[in-house]
Specification:
The protein has 314 residues and is mostly beta strands. A hairpin with a 4-residue loop joins strand 4 and strand 5.
Length: 314
């Protein structure tokens, strides 16, 4: 009987079934998908990296909190402003203005108001009407005729989808819907009607995101095709690119850039297909004190911009 002992099992043979059982196929739980971001923010990561708030001249922003929910802000800007011209040369005139603002921030209500020395008034409201329904509104009032406008948006957040309905002056109506199809993929669409101009349109979008990358695509009947891709190289470095194409006017623009977050600063830069290069630096000098540098070079238009500023307060 000793001679009939079974042959020894090879290590590979013993490891195979265990490996197969230890890594079961990952299945998508379609009843427990994540809620996607709003349709209008599908390019959010690319916009943050490629389109910082560039400016030219000098800027100073001061924010003073009066209590945990209410704060006042003061902003001073001095620098040139471009004026429309039919020539290829960029025409700028020196300008300066002061802006006063008030902010009220509550977990369910946010009120932001700004008034400038030229008479323009900007207001924003965000109110949580329920756990799933949010009202967002913004308006700008000015002394110039036909330049004041307002917009209200109702945002409904479902378990694995979002729906929005928009109303604006000029008989502007719009609706959008985005649905999570898998854990990483979401698809959506939108419709709009501009009654004042008698124009309507539809659009479609797709977004695929993981822990390391975000890819988005959007197309609309207005002729716009937008693609963007963001790759997270590390916890501090991200690379981004976008592609814009209008199949009605045959205009194409693409750009690529970087977003580098250090311990005390954040540096963003890009270059596009028109030869325009820009960089934006935010340096944290101390608690509540930030230094800002902004630069943009447009070789095609021979337009060169440089700005610096300070931000005091959180």
């Amino acid at each position: 009987m000793a001679g009939m002992a079974p042959p020894p099992t090879s290590p590979m043979g013993a490891k195979g079934p265990e490996a197969a059982s230890s890594k079961p196929d990952e299945k998508v739980d379609y009843l427990n998908l994540p809620c996607p971001i709003p349709y209008e923010e599908i390019h959010r990561e690319a916009l943050m990296s490629l389109k910082p708030e560039l400016f030219e001249g000098m800027r100073f922003d001061f924010t003073k909190g009066l209590n945990p929910k209410f704060a006042l802000s003061h902003s001073v800007f001095m620098g040139p402003t471009e004026i429309p011209s039919q020539s290829t040369e960029t025409i700028k005139i020196p300008t300066a203005h002061y802006e006063f603002g008030a902010n009220f921030i509550d977990p369910k209500l946010m009120l932001v108001g700004r008034i400038m020395t030229d008479g323009r008034l900007n207001a924003r409201v965000k109110c949580d009407l329920s756990d799933n329904l949010t009202l967002k509104a913004n308006a700008q009032l000015t002394n110039e005729p036909h330049m004041s406008h307002g917009m209200a948006t109702f945002d409904y957040k479902g378990k694995d989808y979002r729906a929005q309905f928009q109303m604006g002056n000029g008989a502007l109506l719009g609706a959008s819907y985005i649905q999570s199809v898998t854990t990483n993929l979401s698809l959506g669409g939108e419709v709009f009607w501009a009654g004042q101009h008698r124009k309507s349109g539809v659009g479609y979008a797709a977004r695929y995101n993981t822990d390391k990358m975000v890819a988005t695509g959007q197309v609309a009947s207005t002729g716009m095709v937008a693609l963007s891709y963001v790759q997270k190289v590390s916890e501090k470095v991200s690379l981004a690119t976008d592609f814009m194409y209008n199949y009605l006017s045959r205009e194409v623009t693409s750009s690529m850039g970087y977003d580098y977050i250090l311990r005390q600063c954040r540096l963003r830069g890009k270059i596009d297909s028109n030869g325009c290069t820009s960089a934006f630096l935010e340096e944290r000098l101390n608690m509540g004190l930030n230094f800002i540098l902004s630069a943009e070079i447009d070789h095609q238009r021979k337009d060169y911009k440089f700005g610096f500023g300070l931000t005091v307060g959180e």
